[in-house]
Amino acid sequence: MRGFTLEEQKRLAASLVRLLALYRPLIDAYVILQVDPAFLPSKEFFSDDLWGRLPRSWQAVLGELSPPEVAALLLRRGRPAALWPLSLLAFHATAHALPFPRRPADPRDPPLPPRFCRHLRPKKQHEVQRLAQVLKRLSELTGCRQVVDVGAGQGHLARFLAFGLQLSVTAVEGDARLVTQAAKFDRALALELAKEQAKQQAPDRPAVQGPSHVVGWVSPDTRWPEFVKLLHSGKAADDRSLGGADSARQPPELRETGAGKEGGRAGSGLGPLLLTGLHACGDLSATLLRLFVASPDIAGITSVSCCYMKLSPGGYPLSNWVSGLPGHQLSYKAREGACHALEDYRLRLERDSPSLRTHCYRARLETLIRAIDPAKKRLGVQAIPKTHEMTFEQYARQGLERVGMTPRGPLEAASPAEQRRVVVFVSLALLLAPLVETLILLDRMIYLQEQGFPCELVPLFNPALSARNLVLVSAKEVPPSDLWGLAEGD
Predict the structure, then answer these.
(1) pTM (2 decimals)?
(2) Does residue 379 register a pLDDT over 70?
(3) In this predicted model, what pLDDT tens digit does every residue of 140-172 receive, in sequence order?
(4) Of residues 120, 208, 226, the one with CA closest to residue 172
(5) Are 285 and 292 in contact (CB under 8 A)?
């Protein structure tokens, strides 16, 4: 955040740890998360009486709220109902005040050209366009034109950086099938560009170089020498799948030199490079930050994280400061909740979406399962398509069938009052999710500064499109004030 000093960051981290400890029973409630219909509450909501664990004064004022009222009074930042108890008012004010702001600056970047929108949904188009512009500006600030994209998938970001912005790009991906698909897309785009160049009768214009692809996993144990070796010796796929992966596909920085001395730490042959990861999953984001710290060859990094629930103890905490705070630990359930944002759910509440009535289906199903066999808890019932179009009886019969059970007695849905309580409980848990994400990202900011590197955390994507919309940017020779400007455009 702009002008946010290290001491202020440390104080905020300490405050978040204390606050999350206070509300640990709420953030640790067992939560089922699902893309459609977005967010399902605890299986144990009814069987473990989670509503009854809330303060009675909270139950009294929240239990009768309609979904639009929940959105307006609870999930909106502003003045809630005047008659709320002081403890609830304090919860509401703190939950809205402490998280990092998520609203990005108005983008002034050019739109993603149509040829780079193929095979991409609008969400991914938006992410590629915005992050690529940040990397382009970081390249200009550092004088570094080589980018390594780790966890590149089908290469959409790498393709635009290389073909669209003329950067030298190496894309690293562990799944060879995705790399093969990326190379296929590259060849099609290269052919299209070559035809356009021929029509323009510009035979002397140099061909645009596409990205180089490397198949390989970057694990939490990967150190800089191993990473250098991966970049030097990795292949996109076997020659047959690529149609001949000759040396011309490799950037000059990787073709002309060996691994260097001491496994690449000194004289690695890589030259200065920028490291990036667009929604690098779990420990991968933390690993990339460690590589940035360890290598003099990495001039800068942009990190957009996701899947916090997959973090190992080595992925959080990273900083000495947060590691030393009593109670800093975050449960799997808390980190899982941090992967979701308020924006989409608030919109569903405001519209009183039909999907809301299905929120308590899974929780009610859990009570049926335990009634049939008390020894069975938290069974893996996969998402049932079009749940919101079903009655509870239809849903319950399919759900019980999936776990090999038959119903005993009537299949009664939750009452309207119970459904409202489920919505309120989900909303309370969601209010804490940004606090957990803020603590995780604060830990990474503090870690980089403990190592002597300035950094900034900037809201980059539209949160309504991309729930994980904060980018952590650091460079070893760039003032922090310049880092913030990278996301604001010209």
Answers:
(1) 0.88
(2) no
(3) 999 999 999 999 999 999 999 999 999 999 999
(4) 226
(5) no
Q: Helix/strand/coil (H, E, C) string of the chain?
A: CCCCCHHHHHHHHHHHHHHHHHCHHHHCCCCEECCCCCEECCHHHCCCCCHHHCCHHHHHHHCCCCHHHHHHHCCCCCCCCCCCCHHHHHHHHHHHHCCCCCCCCCCCCCCCCHHHCCCCCHHHHHHHHHHHHHHHHHHHHHCCCEEEEECCCCCHHHHHHHHHCCCEEEEEECCHHHHHHHHHHHHHHHHHHHHHHHHCCCCCCCCCCCCEEEECCCCCCCCHHHHHHHHHHCCCCCHHHHCCCCHHHCCHHHHCCCCCEHHHCECCCCCCEEEEEEEEECHHHHHHHHHHHHCCCEEEEEEEEECHHHCCCCCCCCCHHHHCCCCCCCCHHHHHHCCCCHHHHHHHHHCCCHHHHHCCHHHHHHHHHHHHCCCCCCCCCCCCCCHHHCCHHHHHHHHHHHCCCCCCCCCCCCCHHHHHHHHHHHHHHHHHHHHHHHHHHHHHHHHHHHCCCCEEEEECCCCCCCCCCEEEEEECCCCHHHHHHCCCCC
- Strand-pairing partners, residue 32, are 40
Measured between alpha carbons, how far apart are the two ends of the chain, in Å? 19
Determine the pLDDT at residue 39.
40
Question: Distance between CA atoms of 337 and 316, rounded to whole angstroms?
Answer: 16
Angle CA(134)–CA(135)–CA(140) in degrees, nearest 5?
100
What's phi and psi for 205, nearest 5 deg? -70, 130
Q: What strands lie across the sheet with 168-173, from one edge to the other?
A: 212-215, 168-173, 146-150, 273-281, 298-306, 470-475, 455-459
How far apart, in whole angstroms, are the C-alpha atoms of residue 263 and residue 258?
Answer: 10
- pLDDT tens-digit map of 439-488: 999 999 999 999 999 999 999 999 988 999 999 999 998 887 888 778 76
Residue 356 confidence (pLDDT) above 60: yes
Of 53 and 42, the structure prediction assigns the larger pLDDT to 53
Q: Tokens representing 362?
A: 């899974």
pLDDT at 120: 95
98: tokens are 């402490």
Q: How do residues 170-202 score in pLDDT, each as one tens digit?
A: 999 999 999 999 999 999 999 999 888 888 876
Q: Tell me how far apart the alpha carbons of residues 172 and 238 are, in angstroms, rounded to a whole number.
A: 15
User: What token pair was written down for 70?
Assistant: 């929940």
Query: 81-127 pLDDT, tens per residue?
Result: 668 999 999 999 999 999 999 988 777 778 899 999 999 999 999 99
pLDDT over 80 at 57, yes or no: yes
The token pair at 206 is 């140099």
